[in-house]
Amino acid sequence: MVSRKVQVVNPSGLHLRPAGLLCQTSMKFESKVNILYKDQQINAKSVLNVMASGIRCGTEVEVCCDGKDEEEALEAVCTLIETGLKE
């Protein structure tokens, strides 16, 4: 398992469009991809779970990946979050 802390920088947080993009990216990998936020472990492959988390701009989250392509998954998801989820 690998993990990294990142800050959500897009102005609107993880609402529908960025949550969908995050999930699409996560689903490209076999590894489990989770976001740790407060006391929650959020499945990054579920749009509803990501949206329901209420993660806003400026929030620091930890991305955790576990599986045979965990390094690639971690890099892709963290880069996406750090660059503003294309917003």
UniProtKB/TrEMBL annotation:
HPr domain sequence ranges: 1-87
Coarse class of the protein's main subcellular location: cytoplasm
Domain of life: Bacteria
Protein name as annotated: HPr family phosphocarrier protein
Keyword RNA-binding included in the entry's annotation: no
Localization, UniProt: Cytoplasm
Organism the protein comes from: Enterocloster hominis (ex Liu et al. 2021)
Taxon lineage: Bacteria, Bacillati, Bacillota, Clostridia, Lachnospirales
UniProt KW Cytoplasm keyword: yes
Matches recorded under PROSITE patterns: PTS_HPR_DOM
Keywords in alphabetical order: Cytoplasm, Phosphotransferase system
